[in-house]
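Input/output pair, single chain:
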Amino acid sequence: MTIIDRLTERIPDLAIHPQSLVTLLNVFDDPAVGADALLPIVEQDVGLTAKLLKLCNSPLYNSRREIGSVREAMVRIGNHAFARLAFVLGVEPVLNSGGKPPSDQESLWRHSLSVAWASAALADTLGVTHLRDRVYTAGILHDLGKAAYDGLSEDLGLPEGAGPEEERRVLGVDHAELAAHVVDRWGLPEDVVEMIRSHHEPAGDTEGLAASRAVHLADRLANGAVRGLDDEESDDLVSLMESWNVDAEVADMIRTRLGDLETNVLALALGRERSAEGAR
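Output:
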């Protein structure tokens, strides 16, 4: 068994079947996909149903009357929003399994939500608006590989906060490659797999490169908003954005939103930030 196989065995299970993730991505591409394809994804799991209905009945969705069923939730919020909510809740157990409190600014889950939202925002300014949902998907799963060695860093001899080069030196593989291996095994589209694999070193054809750049920049902006950047890191990021013709106003907006401790990143990722702000 390879090191990749041994590490990926430690990644927690999804809340839904991997094929269901593919179905949800198909809804992103074609919102006309009907209820017969969507509803079973949620209804087959009691825990997922409960989480979805709880959120749909929260101030996040401004429901004026109680939503009592999964079908009613889908009708109320729409196919695309329903698919995105189910997707986010479906991957949460994998990315939110480290035992860190929800308020922890460094948590993998919070970071994943932040990068998903920021990646989608950057897709527009990088000219791949039509890939916005796939970029979002890559953004939320880009650090999935880190779940493989969560809690084992010290035992493995991996320094806290180690980057890809250090991961490759110690483990023989980095978290981006681990994540790509897992999502490929799940059957996610090849372009999503490649965005995840190359999110530290963007690569691909014209569209693939722009999409990978969106995830790369979102990751760096999200980290910088929370941890701060030194002068060299800041100058390097500014230079990079200028060379890629990234709208500075978009980057500043991302930094501002993610740097605000009051920002509800789940609401951002679900496109419900205005509802969350109104509920404060």
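The mean pLDDT is 87. The two ends are 51 Å apart (CA to CA).
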